[in-house]
Amino acid sequence: MKAAVWHRTKDVRIENVEEPVVNPGQVKVKVEWTGICGSDLHAYHHGIGVQTGVPHPISGEMAPLTLGHEFAGTVAEVGDGVTNVNVGDRVTIEPLIYCGECEYCRQGRYNQCERFGFVGLNANGGFAEYAIVQPYMVHKLPDQVSLEEGALVEPTAVAFHAVRSSRMKVGDKVAVFGVGPIGLLTILSAKAAGAAQIIAVDVSDERLAKAQEIGATAMINGARQNTEEEILALTGTGVDVAFEAAGAQPTFTNAVNTVKKGGEVVVIAAFAKPASIDLMQLMVKEASVTAILAYRHISTGSPEPSRFGLI
User: Fold this and answer.
1) Is the pLDDT reported for residue 309 higher than 60?
2) What would the pLDDT profile of 164-221 be if each residue is shown by its tens digit?
3) pLDDT for the residue 161
4) Of 15, 38, 255, 279, which is the most buried if we count CB atoms within 10 A?
């Protein structure tokens, strides 16, 4: 089969590889749609997150690896002992790899597992015709959800988790810095959670137009406008929550500078290198900076520990 295989930084090849064989306790998925995540770009440009040198302690795999973790498809085959899905089921994949045994997994925080990993970074992923995954990763799609939409479930879970984990309340003012796919999904999630004002910040007019289409109440092009001045003019004292979905020093600085006293900056994007922060400003504002990694228990909303955490 064909697959997009990561070999090293800036070296991803479309190759003919052996079609994977399903083993007991595994599920083989015929991939129909796969999204390109910012994590895939970080893997390509910087090698961030890719398992290299030694096999991952859970998956047993390392580079060269097939990329891709935002994917949906049809169950092609199930191994012995798999009971939660059947051949032909339309499914989306929760690509988190975790042990289910460490302190964090036992607390239900499986996205913080001591041996955490991702299908597509620490095991072969969905940029291929077929992928092998664990049963707990496989979630059936409702009939009204297409397979194309199914590939968006995983990034939507990221945005939903960011908003749910934040201190945002109904009626709050928020800003979303970077309105690529994750930023746009964050706008949708903030809108659903009751944000009264949603300010979208980007340097792409096309992305800002999409942000307006899905519910942003104001758009700022940081390449042409003074982002901080515009946000303060729109809000008076700043936003309650700023979501950083760009992964860049200028947007992170703007986020810190435009949250109000007692406000919060939530970092969603991965940063390719360390960022600097004005701690004195945080102190004066009694503001906070938090971050999220992926998601956990999104469909159930349950805080209870579970080996089979659901998107």
Assistant:
1) no
2) 999 999 999 999 999 999 999 999 999 999 999 999 999 999 999 999 999 999 999 9
3) 97
4) 255
- 299: confidence class by pLDDT, cuts 50, 70, 90: low
* pTM for the model: 0.93
